[in-house]
Amino acid sequence: MTDGPASYAESGVDVVAGERAVDLMRASVAAAQRPEVVGDLGGFAGLFDASALRGFRRPLLATATDGVGTKIAVARALDRHDTIGRDLVAMVVDDLVVTGAEPLFLTDYIACGQVVPERIAQIVAGIAAGCAEAGCALLGGETAEHPGLMAPDEYDLAAAGTAVVEADQMLGPQRVESGDVVLGLASSGLHSNGYSLARAVLIGDDPSRLDITVAELGRTVGEELLEPTRIYTQVCLDMIRTVGGVHALSHVTGGGLAANLARVLPPGLTAQLDRSAWTPLPVFDLIARTGGIEQPEMEVAFNMGIGMVIVADPRVMAPLFARYGGWGLSVLGQIRPTRSDDVAAAPPKGGSGGTVVLTGSHPG
Fold first, then answer.
1. How far apart are CA 79 and CA 9, in angstroms?
2. Range 66-86 burial, b when 16+ CB lie within 10 A, else e
3. Which DSSP category does 218 fall into?
4. What letter would DSSP give residue 242?
């Protein structure tokens, strides 16, 4: 045997720092609650009073889990951790809402090399702010310190969320019909996908490039890359409940627009989209130009300016634009029967059998 650490703290795990982190995050978590939440922060498990959800005939629970990926590397390089939690929430709740479900609560998991209470508190504050925007509760979570496995400044995030939808109101391929219109809500930027490629092109091995101001972006590379993922949950729920006529939603994440839209199309139907219908944000052109990346690869790696797709009855287009035009709503195309010459722009990722065809070019 060899001489080893005499305490947990000497081995790299600081319990006191963990307790201080909980104290610092307490106010943020308290601001991200719903009336159905039972108990307070600090228990072994979060409790949610499902009996308080009135009016459901056949409630279905939806669940999703996700992370933020290598966008965390940008937050670490800039030592700015107040927005990455919001990205985490967006990646989970915007997956849940595509079923038509209302997010109820979320639990988070933070793994780090060393608990720095102030940094953990910043991360959780972002998570809580995202939950409040999405209308769900931050029910609980876990912060795990992994000395020896992760460097002191390293951390990773994950979260799981639960939502509820009435069975006969669930959205998806079963509702999509030929003649439906395909609409898109603008993204705020890269969101939380494609960062391995974006970082390789824009930063490489030189973190100082994050501080370069790019005229076409109107800010630094780092500020652009840390732009928070847009949370569409409440606007999508409002569309469903107030306007109606929404048949399917698609959250555009890894795989891009075509692959994710194909996931909500039934066999025998094709979404024909026209690229000239929207203009991608300047960051996408910057990445393509700097890295010499061809269009097909860009469309697989990035959302290209569309963060959420709505497949709807064409008769509700006018009220949708009147109510949500400020969200950068655009008409992307239409659903039609699949033809023998149709070739999907990208292979369906867990798709249900439909195809997506993209034609034309983006403006400019």
1. 24
2. bbbbbbbbbbbbbeebbbbbb
3. T
4. I
Tabulate helix, strand, coil % of the chain (nearest 5): 35, 25, 40
Pairing of strands 59-67, 213-214: unpaired
CA distances (Å), 137 to each of 9, 21, 259, in order? 33, 19, 31
Residue 27 CB contacts under 8 Å (≥ 6 apart), including other chains? none
pLDDT tens for 194-215 read 999 999 999 999 999 999 999 9
Q: Lowest mean pLDDT: which of 169-178, 201-210, 335-344?
A: 335-344
What's the order of all strands across the beta sheet hosting 330-337?
246-251, 306-312, 181-186, 330-337, 269-274, 355-359
pLDDT at position 21: 56
Q: pTM of the full predicted structure?
A: 0.90
Could you tell me what percent of the chain has a pLDDT over 90? 79
- C-alpha to C-alpha distance for 270 and 220, rounded to whole angstroms: 40
